[in-house]
């Protein structure tokens, strides 16, 4: 058992969690195989492969994107906030570090999907799942701008939209750190501002802002607990509370917060506040509050504290972190490849309901993602950092 007076040099558990989050998102995109061009066809969600085992990922895996944002907030405040505030990391170095990490695979998968969609269009006179595959959207994709509010819809390798949001968050993060702003109460206000952005400006950007700065708060919480010498008993209580939260939060969102329950409380009509119906506002806010402000930050905090006390318990699972980015960016190109060379898509086709299809898909995706990480991502990153003369403070 380690004394948590200092943070570990590496959080393997958070690497593993990032990998699990990526796989959860991929499960939630299995319905792509039942699209008719860019429109979802009729299919039976409960007949998806091994649904009884993986139904939480099929149904709710998309929420893991907000977990990505939370993890990024924790990692960036851990690795960069103090160095940026002290001026040890310049904007140039910060930008190039992120560019060398993210751009090479993004560029390659963008080209792969562009080529695949071209072939698909020649065959079917429509695109596969994502419709806006034109020169304009290709151009904004080149600059990670596919979800900056200048797009008309999802395009090309569309799951990269969350990385597009993260790039915006990186700029905001750097400026705030250089100004010396991020104290715990300021991060709280920034997370609340994210919820306001979600309601009034842009839902995805607001979710990203809220989750990212809640991740920063998680880092501050872990740092504080380590400094005051948090006991193993407190960490065990955190584990218990987190496990209970993983049961309670999905139950609250799924069963206790639907509109029908609120409407039962207001039989004479929905009250309004600031011109908005209270019921709709409550439902809109309940999910980000419970997931983005409670469950995900609590999970990240707990895993970090467990690793601070008991060491690298998740080191054997850290390979999941290696494939998190590659699997996330490769899964749609692989799906496109499946529909180009595999069984024809139709409502009557049972292939993509079969466990064999799921096993085949992941048996290709996981090794491909690992190979991409070791033989493309890392060499490309090292090459760019060497040529651009930038050194990394951590990753």
Q: What's the Cα radius of gyration?
A: 22 Å
- Strand line-up of the largest beta sheet: 1-2
Structural class: mainly alpha
Mean pLDDT: 89
Q: What is the helix tally? A: 15
Strand content: under 5%
Describe this entry's structure for a reader.
- The protein has 395 residues and is mainly α.
- The chain has one domain.
- Helix content is 69%, strand content 2%.
- The protein is built from 15 helices and four strands.
- It has helices at residues 12-28, 51-60, 64-79, 81-85, 91-124, 135-142, 161-178, 184-200, 203-227, 232-256, 259-265, 278-310, 319-322, 324-341, 355-388, and strands at 35-36, 39-40, 272-273, 276-277.
- The strands form two sheets. A two-stranded antiparallel sheet has the order 1-2. Strands 3-4 form a two-stranded antiparallel sheet.
- α1 (12-28) crosses α2 (51-60).
- The longest helix has 34 residues, at 91-124.
- The radius of gyration is 22 Å and the shape is globular.
